[in-house]
């Protein structure tokens, strides 16, 4: 019995590693697609340039509304969290979890590249300040969540016709997801109350 327990645990760890690799692969593919897609927007560069300059002027000249930033951060990040979590409870949810990570990678690669292409070194500075810090927390959390969700989704499909302890199965998934939610909340607090002031200071300093 004990030998079977350790065999099952080892098998689960090995499967989680497989899903981790797939999740990272989709995310990196999204970044590559986002970077390459900037080449197709060269004709609209002037419009994007005007848009971002107006956005930076708006940020630098206006008092920060922490309530708006908080609501925006909660809406964007906790929505993704809940969607991935729900997909993990669906036996066919794994492919959709991977697509979400593909999209997240695409948006990051696209935004980062657009800033650098339009504003050169200044754009790189804004990207490093406005995109990187909170994502040092968000990305590992979402990669871990996507790995767990896709793995549990696969297990749910595999065990659909087998007798398993469903309560224990669900509790493990919920507990693992909640442990990931804690650092995401910390990142939301940082993104709301610290990042806007840092970003505003950089935009004013660089005179974009």
TrEMBL record:
TM annotation in the entry: 80-103, 110-131, 137-154, 174-195
Keyword Transmembrane: yes
InterPro entries xrefs: SpoIIM (IPR014196), SpoIIM-like (IPR002798)
Keyword Phosphoprotein: no
Source organism, top-level taxon: Bacteria
Signal sequence segment: none
Any Pfam family the entry gives: SpoIIM
Keywords: Membrane, Transmembrane, Transmembrane helix
Cited NCBIfam families: spo_II_M
Protein name, as recorded: Stage II sporulation protein M
Species annotation: Inconstantimicrobium porci
Organism lineage: Bacteria, Bacillati, Bacillota, Clostridia, Eubacteriales
